[in-house]
Amino acid sequence: MDDQQLIHLIKIKDYSGLEQLIDNYGSSILMTIHRILPAPHEQSDWPDVANEVFYEIWRKIEAYDPKKSSFVTWVLLITRSRAIDRKRKLNQSFQQEDIAEHGQLAFQESPLKEEEFLIWLEELTAVDQQIFLLYYFYQESPDQIAQQLGLQTTAIYNHLSRGKKLLKKIWKERMNSDEF
Predict the structure, then answer these.
(1) Distance CA 74, CA 97 (A)
(2) Residue 123: exposed, middle, or buried by beta-carbon count in 10 A (0-12, 13-18, 19+)?
(3) What is this structure's pTM?
(4) Is 139 exposed, middle or buried (CB count within 10 Å of its CB: 0-12, 13-18, 19+)?
(5) Residue 45, helix vs strand vs coil
(6) DSSP alpha helices (H): ranges in the chain?
(7) Which tens digits make up the pLDDT trace of 44-75?
(8) How far, in Å, CA of 15 to CA of 134, rounded?
(9) Positive or negative, the Cα torsion across 70, 154, 142, 160?
């Protein structure tokens, strides 16, 4: 089942669409949650965050705009938001407890740095979004990505190069216009 059919089923509140969402994107959603919430005191919240993600997708499917991003990017941005919200809540309560009892916090600097690039993916085409996710987030090799997408390895390198140049250009423009 392709994304359009899946989206249609969720829009009409057909539970088979939710099942297909879990089949198609469940592992990506879980991997994202695990990467944002890796600390031992966060791991017990993984199932709750995943349920929140599926529920939010179910409720907000009408807000998905294919002109802005690919479906997988939209799904992972929701996942990222729910996981970050949970991280903040857990770290706030964790910091209020006796830190000596629990050792150092899981993150001393920005706990969100690795996932921030998901926001930037919206600037890329759907194909480039998929390639960037596979290469930078899931750390697959260009050969593996080429095989999955039915492209030549050189095409993957070209997409990565052009995408990086585009993002760098956009980043410079935003820095100069003080959008940050």
Answers:
(1) 35
(2) middle
(3) 0.59
(4) exposed
(5) coil
(6) 3-11, 15-36, 40-43, 46-60, 71-96, 99-102, 117-120, 126-132, 142-149, 153-177
(7) 899 999 999 999 999 999 999 999 889 999 99
(8) 28
(9) negative
